[in-house]
Design brief:
single chain; 485 residues; mainly alpha; two-stranded antiparallel sheet; 19 helices; 2 strands; 1% strand; globular
Length: 485
């Protein structure tokens, strides 16, 4: 069983570390490779033992994925429209001498890209979830993610300084002067590097908590603190490297969402350590948010271009109009790029090809309908609550609390950025996000018995002659009233 766990871990870590390497794995060949490896990891993990809570969460996730797939299949099946067919099929029959069977979807088949991204979402989350059933392997997964993101951030810094006009071995066609690491889009690179910032900051903060001292003199003279301080300096340096790379991406959305995710992670780390009243904590959180917003408003692209993009607001309005036309079943999985050109009016003066809605949840509502979009949004909120609740239940010095707080911050950043951009639709980031989220959710509902509680149960009032499993007590014969037999 342990060998099977190691194989499953390796099949999950390899896509996690290598998926962002070649342009974010946006080509179909890369998607096929990663789906194959993650499917093998998922099959290996399917026979691993899980507790009841983990089975229920995994079952709920698979039910949601099954509902999504069922709607996608119903959309392309002819004869099942029931008055919800797309008008394009009627226009085709009028313009061409063919009889086109009406469908709900604007396409006769599901695009291969949509199928590949769906399978990546399912397999990455599930593979990470199975890794999370083991605490030791979950730490290996988060460590691999932490170090790989740092390497990508360092590469981005060197590439921006030495070859600013190149993206790997190809000429950079867009985002000149911005750090993109190995991604084509600087927004996706910013969200990806922001995940590394959160992971390294939480690790550095937890290292700082492990310092043992009651006074400044004891802090400076205790030899064990020297090693801890050295690790804190290294981990803080890694966090600042990711922060510097994040700023150089020039991404407004990526920077804002990463900072908000970092605030959530910090809040979960310090909760219970600093005991304050609820209203004090609320006011402090609002003040910290205001300081972050003020700082971000004077940084990089946000200071020069503002927080919002007028072109995206126009696209969002078009999406809302589409949702009103097809509220229940949508326009078909993967059809946004097909139907959006017919909606662009003369007042929409933004250049370029809009193959994404720049809002993943809005695009899901357009393609799959409001019920599926609401179910996915509800699942995202529930996942955040599960992560936050588990992080708060652990002791403030428990290593698992730092990991869960970091994953909760990453989930917050990823979800927020998916509202205003399409980072979760890029395979190189989707795999990293899905594996970390699945691992964190599995660890959140793992059965954990605090060490002190276990020890107290082991040694609580044991009477002579009582058999305690795993505890052998030898009671020497002592006569009453001080007489020795």
């Amino acid at each position: 069983m342990e060998r099977l766990r190691s194989i499953q871990l390796g099949l999950t870590v390899v896509p996690l570390c290598l998926a962002p390497l070649f342009f974010g794995s946006v080509d179909q060949l890369s998607v096929v490779v990663w789906v194959t490896l993650l499917s093998a990891a998922m099959l290996c993990g399917a026979i691993l033992p899980m507790n009841t809570a983990q089975r229920r969460i995994l079952l709920g996730f698979l039910v949601l994925c099954g509902a999504y797939a069922a709607v996608a299949v119903i959309q392309i099946m002819p004869g099942l429209a029931g008055g919800l067919e797309d008008p394009i099929w009627r226009h085709v029959s009028q313009l061409l001498p063919i009889s086109a069977s009406p469908r709900i979807s604007a396409r006769a088949e599901i695009p291969t890209n949509a199928i590949g991204h769906f399978l990546l979402a399912v397999t990455s989350f599930t593979s990470g979830f199975f890794v999370g059933t083991s605490r030791r392997h979950s730490e290996v997964l988060t460590t691999a993610a932490r170090h790989s993101i740092l390497l990508y951030a360092a590469y981005g810094l060197f590439a921006l300084a030495l070859t600013p006009g190149m993206l790997l071995w190809s000429p950079k066609l867009a985002y000149h002067g911005s750090l993109t690491a190995t991604f084509v889009n600087h927004n996706t690179a910013a969200t990806f590097i922001g995940c590394g910032l959160i992971l390294w900051f939480c690790l550095a903060f937890q290292t700082l908590q492990s310092l043992q001292f009651r006074s400044l003199r004891e802090l400076l003279l205790t030899s064990s603190n020297e090693h801890v301080a050295f690790k804190f300096i290294l981990r803080s340096g890694a966090a600042f490297t990711c922060m510097f790379a994040l700023l150089l991406t020039g991404s407004r959305g990526g920077l804002i969402c990463s900072m908000l995710g970092l605030l959530v992670a910090i809040g979960l780390m310090v909760a219970g350590v600093i005991r304050v009243r609820f209203w004090y904590a609320l006011v402090s959180a609002i003040a910290a948010l205001a300081v972050v917003v003020f700082w971000l408003s004077h940084v990089g692209g946000i200071g020069s271009r503002g927080f919002f993009d007028d072109g995206r607001w126009s696209v969002y309005q078009y999406c809302v109009d589409l949702i009103r036309q097809r509220p229940l079943m949508g326009s078909g999985a993967g059809t946004f790029a097909d139907i959006f050109p017919s909606l662009r009016g003369t007042e929409f003066n933004t250049w370029g090809v809009w193959d994404f809605a720049h809002s993943t949840i809005l695009e899901i509502a357009v393609e799959m309908g409001i019920p599926i979009a609401l179910a996915i949004a509800l699942a995202a909120v529930i996942s955040l609550l599960i992560l936050a609740r588990a992080a708060l239940k652990l002791g403030w010095k428990d290593r698992g609390r730092g990991s869960l707080a970091a994953i909760a911050g990453i989930a917050t950043a990823g979800y927020l950025h998916s509202i205003i951009d399409f980072s979760l639709q890029i395979p190189g980031f989707l795999i990293v996000f899905g594996c970390l989220l699945g691992c964190g959710i599995a660890r959140s509902v793992a059965e954990q018995v605090p060490v002190r509680q276990a020890r107290s149960r082991e040694f609580e009032s044991v009477r002579p002659g009582t058999d305690v499993p795993g505890l052998a007590l030898e009671t020497p014969p002592v006569a009453s009233r001080g007489k020795i037999p």
